[in-house]
Design goal:
Helix content is 43%, strand content 10%. It is an alpha/beta fold. The strands form 2 sheets. A 5-stranded parallel sheet has the order 1-2-3-7-6, with helices on both faces. A two-stranded antiparallel ribbon has the order 4-5. Helix 1 crosses helix 2, helix 1 runs parallel beside helix 4 and helix 2 runs parallel beside helix 7.
Amino acid sequence: MAKAISAATSAATLKAAGYWMHLIRAVEDAGRRLYFQGRLPGSFYDGRGQEATAIGAALAMEPDDIACPLIRDMGVHLVRGVTPAEVFRHYLGKDGAPMSGRDGNIHLGSFERGTIPMISHLPEMLPVGMGVAIARQRRGLSSVAFGFCGDGASCGGVFHETLNLAAVMHAPLVVILERNHFAYMTPESRYLPITELSTRAAGYGIQAWSADGNDVLAVHTVVQEAAELARSGHGPSLIEVFTYRMHGHGAHDGQKYVSQDELESWRNRDPLDRWRVAAAEKLAWKDADQEALEHRVANEIEGALADAVDAPYPDADELRESVFA
């Protein structure tokens, strides 16, 4: 079983989570502005409303772990060491980004910092994460792979195949299923026959958890427990976190298919607001602390944007570098 988390550790995690959640929201708000200003090639995808899921999970990872974040999980990249300036450089197609300006919008990753660039088709990153987990396991490394997917992706065949094979091979894989209630524009009522997707884990003989995906400490606790079990040889697990996608699929999606009443209901459960309530209770967080945090984040975003806008584009003569064939 997972070790009990001390009050001091919990408080430190909560404080760190507050910084990272505010930072990723500010990064994504700035990215959306760049998109609407017509300055980005392609669209922009954000995880507004799902910050606690990405940050809670990322803070449970250890240095040698590997993650396969998706379009709502940019916070994972930040926690793992990708800077806001690098994120902006990536979306602007500039040099000095993790992909060196050679790939667009959502295909972001940094191998040396433990994140694998995603591909657009979902849930095809799950077997990639599983493969890395098994390879490291065979080399005797204490490393866990963290795969992310949404409830729509969980209906794909690759999702089931990966969990089945991971169970057979006792792969140290933690799958975090972000129950945000939509597959692009399709509501879950049209593709889900059950209320809790975590119950599917029984069919693979693996452990499962459900958690409030808008409560960062709740997410962190279950992900940490699943990771410790994977590290100790107990194989894969499935974590379902209930959250909500507050924006459309991408910045190009006006989300007109969602009622304002439904959005308002989830707006009242905003993970940043939930964090501030918890911080007031557990950290004696004051208005001055909040102002200082927001000022710090705003300054970081301003500097990162200036860096990315002024950065050069990749040299065309280097176009063929890193190409397989």
